[in-house]
Amino acid sequence: MSATQSNNLPLWVQDRDKVIAESTDVEWRYQTPPDYSRSKENLAKESTSNHLEGTLEAIVQNLVRTFEMEVSFKANPQQWLSIVNDKFRVSTNGGPEYKAADLYAQGTYNLFMADSEHYKASEESFESSAKLFHTTFPQGFPWEVLEVYSGPPTVTFKWRHWGHFHGAYKDYAPTGETVEIIGLSVAHVTDDLKIISLEHYFDNQLFLDKLTSGGKTNSETKGSGCPFGSWFKKSGKG
């Protein structure tokens, strides 16, 4: 597909910055549009996949990045372009289904990560969870599509989320390593590529084990060792 043809695609599957630029009269959660310039620098340096504009992989990647941007920054879910608002549902690992309003109120971290020993979603707000992970990954937490296994209307794709663990996670010391999550998602979309439903599958526990592997910052348990440490050392660092 040529660049001209790709520009004829719906806005929400084009570059995220274009979506932001054309989102006029939008209620922004923090009053101003988000700035992804630092994120784009990280993606350019660390992405493992470079999808050509207009390919199915690039379209899926743009759609999910637009969706993530809208959840994080657009204050009125009715203004989210990437979903069919009245039908939209999202779930993680076969868990409960949530609506767009739930995502706006609680944030993706809280709905995608159930209560566990090292993360209590039920005790976190949208703001507290966002602050926590921004602190943990001060250089950002980029996301990319790795492979797309099936096209519309049921889009199945593999993805990678990664960040450099340079800030403390709660009271656990940073290790400086690259923390990587590999996951699989299934998106049901309309003919014009809006998301009707989204199912995510990934290993929450593996992620949290890595964030606590450095030991407590004020504890004698440093170096207790994480059983998954070697797995992460072998995994790609972008």
From TrEMBL:
InterPro entries attached to this UniProt entry: NTF2-like_dom_sf (IPR032710), Pathogen-related_defense (IPR053218)
Q: Which domain of life is it from?
A: Bacteria
Instruction: Quote the Gene3D superfamilies the UniProt record gives.
Output: 3.10.450.50
Please name the PANTHER family in this protein's record: PATHOGEN-RELATED PROTEIN (PTHR31723:SF10), PATHOGENESIS-RELATED FAMILY PROTEIN (PTHR31723)
What is the protein's given name?
Answer: SnoaL-like polyketide cyclase
What is the source species? Anabaena azotica FACHB-119
Lineage, top ranks: Bacteria, Bacillati, Cyanobacteriota, Cyanophyceae, Nostocales
